[in-house]
Amino acid sequence: MKPILVAGELNIDYVLSGVDELPVHGGEILASGFLQTPGSSSMICAMGLAQLGNPVRFAGRTGRDERGDACVMALAEAGIDTHGIVRDGALATGATVVLSGLRDRALVTFPGAIAALKAEDIDDAVLAGAGHLHVSSYFLQAGMQPGLAALFERARRAGLTTSLDPGFDPAQAWMGDWPVLLSHVDVFLPNEIEACAIAGHDDAVEALLALSSYRARVVIKRGAVGCITLDEGAVVRVPAFVSTVIDTTGAGDSFDAGFLHAWLRGMDLIQALRWASACGSLSTRGVGGTTAQATAGEVRVLLADAP
Asked: What is the pLDDT of residue 32?
């Protein structure tokens, strides 16, 4: 199998767990746990793909600092090719504080070097030999936005398939040339909030129908409800798997990894969605986005035991 190229952001997560109510200015709350762990949507997805047994390359930018060292080391230890990461002493590597509770999590991010990566940095030499290009965190990666459609087009001409996870928009403006982007990408992987905001609908099915009018296969992640997509005009629903949730950080990125793993191997649509849901669910077993990511063997066991 050709390598999967992930082009995106790198940062460290500082996860405070057991936070079921958010702090207010002037107040203080307590967390029951703390963990420093690899973060960022792109990095978590890349490590999830590697954990499933896929060859993975990473292209991105970090500072020459301790956080950057930790990111590159974590990727390398996961068996990911890091030659496409540029270390820039003028930049500071980003960081995210994750306030994680049983129901959901809230994020506070220092972007640092996240916006420094440009689509033009992913040149033909970086694309050469890869089979798929995945990009996450569209709204955070401001440097990627102007040239992203052209990058996807170049990747397709080079024989790669492509996928995009938009991530959350901190400005909540949700602006983008979506008709063009969704005409150049093979798989679009928003969550329900993101899909509804981008499509301008309050209902996930309506958002799915609107976004699916372009070329891309749209898969909408709905957390504990599962996921939906469209197949020959009909809405396909696959439920999430029941699990004991410790932390939901990065579950959507692990979902992406599971879907891409199965889809790139030619599994049928339902199988790919079940792999995605299994990977998303299993990732919530531990604190942080990467500590409990599933192996392919664990997914097969879960799928074999599930109805």
From this structure: 92
CB 100 within 8 A of CB 127: no
- For residue 110, the SS3 value is strand
Torsion of CA 68, 190, 132, 40, to 10 degrees: 10
The CA distance from 54 to 265, in Å, is: 10
Enter the pTM of the model.
Answer: 0.94
Distance, in Å, from the CA atom of 255 to the CA atom of 242, rounded to the nearest integer, reads: 15
* Alpha-carbon gap, residue 214 to 210, rounded angstroms: 8
Does domain 4-299 fall under CATH 3.40.50.1370? My reply is: no
What band does 125 get if pLDDT is binned at 50, 70 and 90?
A: very high
| List of residues 6+ apart from 233 with CB closer than 8 A | none
Residue 307 banded pLDDT, cuts 50, 70, 90: confident
Torsion of CA 257, 261, 267, 268, to 10 degrees: 20
3-state secondary structure of 61: strand
Q: Rounded mean pLDDT of the chain?
A: 95
What are the boundaries of each domain within the chain?
A: 4-299
